[in-house]
């Protein structure tokens, strides 16, 4: 067990609160560089932990304390932050203080070197860590998923209840709300003249369909990502519908019922769910993980000694407030040239459909289409008027006629990229800390999201 001070680094926040939680051992200085928020990073096994530090935020102590068992995952995290500190353009200035040892979690709880815990790594114990961090009086910003099975969901409920009692903010990182085509799809769906009302649909013809395809082999901050072997273990990372699927469920709630409270006991019904494997060869696995053989804990998922049957695909069919929804989360090995993670989404309205595609025809860039249910000619003025009003908030957005409707043309300045979305999530969270509360609908809707994902997984595995 040891402390080391590594890399110049800094993290987060707007001017924030004196009463935002327990501040044991944290300076009460109110200087420009040392405000009342100080970050703790716990066992950063996933690159998302570093992405929240890709930029600086006003009014936060630049020193971040990291607690971890040590090893390659920690070194990869520190290397990413170091890369951000040393970049030529707009470098960050973080200073990380690192504690390594098998008792890293207990050490974090006893020392409380900050008051906001960032959690992004192995998900096996994440819900337990969240629960105990709340017990210790710490705010928590958790990467998705915060629960990977229904037992975790029950523990997460308890954590939210305790957080409310202690006036602590437990929040998860939902980056897809910051993607511009998702934002505009949501905006258009709230325009009755353009969209009408969201159809109820049927089980065979859902009114909302969202599908995402992620890739095991990918680049992060310009470099090929090395994934830990446990990433392929569903008991540590989670099945696809309980992991990436949480983004899709969140978008359904956020876009179709914006700022409405969802009661998972009353508003959600899981109709069916299924999971199926994605094969990964030993050579592909080795390239991704830098390990020459499958570890023992993965061998139960290996066929013919060389093919790993990853838990990489899942589908949920459910109703949300009587609207039929289908979400599909999939993984593949590697994107085609020029491609990356892809997103498909359709919302079916009584007057038009709003559809996001990201295929070869769109040059693998998310593209939003407006497809009227009737004549294009009679609908053109409606589209024009909607865009004109939208420009008050999103200047420069236009449309382009297509065979079936209109393509929404979005200025490049809005397309900041997935990695930058983590900074936007952090900024929102910091504002909530300053306000000392989340929006009223956020906690019940997080519970609804994790109920849907984990209940569907339970159904799929029976």
What is the CATH topology of the largest domain? Answer: Dihydrodipicolinate Reductase, domain 2
Query: Based on helices, strands and strand pairing, what is the structural class?
Result: alpha/beta
How many domains make up the coordinates? 2
Under the CATH scheme, which class of the largest domain?
Answer: Alpha Beta
Biggest beta sheet summary: 10 strands, mixed
Global morphology: globular
First-to-last CA distance: 43 Å
Percent helix, as a range, is: 25-40%
Strand residue percentage:
25-35%
Could you report the average pLDDT, rounded to the nearest whole number?
92
Count of DSSP E strands?
19
Tell me the radius of gyration.
22 Å
Number of helices: 13
Please tell me the CATH architecture of the largest domain by its name: 2-Layer Sandwich
Low-confidence stretches: 7-34
User: CATH superfamily membership of the largest domain, which one?
Assistant: Dihydrodipicolinate Reductase, domain 2
Explained architecture:
By secondary structure, the protein is an alpha/beta fold. The protein folds into two domains: 2-173, NAD(P)-binding Rossmann-like Domain (Rossmann fold, 3-Layer(aba) Sandwich); 178-426, Dihydrodipicolinate Reductase, domain 2 (2-Layer Sandwich), CATH 3.30.360.10. The protein has 13 helices and 19 strands. The strands form three sheets. Strands 8, 11, 12, 13, 14, 15, 16, 17, 18 and 19 form a ten-stranded mixed beta sheet that branches. Helix 6 (180-189) runs parallel beside helix 8. The longest helix is centred in the last third of the chain and has 20 residues, at 442-461. It is globular and about 70 Å long.
């Amino acid at each position: 067990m040891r402390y080391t001070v590594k890399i110049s680094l800094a993290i987060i926040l707007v001017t924030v609160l004196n009463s935002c939680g327990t501040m044991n051992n944290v300076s009460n200085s109110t200087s420009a560089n040392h405000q009342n928020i100080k970050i703790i990073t716990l066992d950063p096994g996933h690159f998302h932990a570093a992405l929240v530090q890709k930029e600086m935020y006003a009014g936060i102590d630049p020193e971040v304390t990291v607690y971890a068992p040590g090893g390659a995952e920690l070194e990869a995290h520190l290397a990413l932050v170091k890369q951000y500190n040393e970049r030529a353009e707009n470098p960050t200035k973080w200073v990380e203080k690192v504690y390594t040892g098998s008792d890293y979690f207990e050490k974090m709880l006893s020392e409380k070197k900050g008051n906001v815990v960032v959690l992004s790594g192995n998900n096996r114990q994440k819900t337990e860590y969240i629960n105990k961090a709340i017990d210790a009086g710490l705010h928590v910003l958790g990467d998705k998923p915060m629960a990977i099975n229904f037992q975790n969901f029950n523990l997460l409920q308890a954590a939210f209840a305790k957080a409310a009692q202690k006036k602590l903010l437990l929040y998860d990182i939902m980056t897809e709300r910051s993607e511009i085509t998702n934002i505009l799809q949501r905006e258009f769906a709230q325009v009755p003249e353009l969209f009408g009302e969201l159809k109820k649909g049927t089980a065979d013809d859902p009114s909302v369909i969202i599908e995402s395809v992620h890739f095991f082999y990918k680049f992060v901050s310009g470099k090929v990502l090395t994934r830990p072997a446990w990433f392929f273990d569903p008991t540590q990372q989670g099945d696809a519908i309980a992991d990436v699927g949480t983004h899709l469920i969140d978008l359904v709630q956020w876009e179709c019922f914006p700022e409405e409270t969802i009661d998972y006991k009353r508003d959600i019904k899981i109709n069916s769910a299924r999971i199926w494997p994605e094969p990964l060869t030993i050579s592909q696995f080795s390239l991704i993980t830098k390990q020459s053989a499958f570890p023992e804990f993965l061998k139960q998922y290996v066929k013919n000694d060389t093919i790993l049957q990853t838990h990489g695909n899942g589908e949920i069919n459910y109703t949300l407030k009587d609207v039929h929804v289908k979400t599909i989360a999939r993984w593949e090995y590697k994107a085609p040239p020029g491609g990356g993670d892809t997103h498909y989404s359709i919302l079916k309205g009584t007057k038009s459909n709003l559809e996001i595609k990201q295929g070869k025809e769109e040059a693998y860039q998310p593209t939003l289409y407006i497809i009227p249910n009737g004549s294009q000619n009679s609908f053109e003025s409606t589209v024009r008027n909607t865009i004109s009003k939208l420009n008050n908030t999103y200047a420069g957005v236009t449309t382009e006629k297509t065979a079936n409707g209109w393509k929404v043309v979005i200025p490049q300045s809005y397309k900041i990229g997935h990695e930058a979305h983590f900074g936007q999530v952090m900024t929102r969270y910091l504002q909530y800390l300053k306000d000392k509360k989340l929006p009223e609908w956020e906690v019940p809707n997080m519970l609804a999201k994790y109920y849907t994902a984990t209940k569907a997984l339970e159904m799929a595995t029976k």
